[in-house]
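Minutes, project check-in
Item: structure for the 111-residue chain
Input as provided by the requester:
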Amino acid sequence: VQLVESGGGLVQPGGSLRLSCAASGFTFRYYVMSWYRQAPGKARELVARITIDGGRAIYADSVKGRFTISRDNAKNTVSLQMNSLKPEDTAVYYCNRDEYWGQGTQVTVSS
């Protein structure tokens, strides 16, 4: 199993970023996929999770209405569209499937 995130970076408050996770080594369409984040000095937390067909998703209360998770089962990718970013969204973002994690991508929201 390999999960490779991309798309992080530095963005101003109110800006947007789109994270992507390329999955390989397993049958992607059979698995629920998630995005987590970990800010400095804090525990890793669930940001969003999407069902195998992409029909349903759940979000952390802190990102509801601003973030959207999606997946493309033909391309074995899961994405996280992040809008109206806030400084408190600054964290390393991780793609997740069960006990498997990507290496993470840094998102920094700062003016």
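Outcome recorded: The chain is about 0% helix and 50% strand.
No further action items on this chain.
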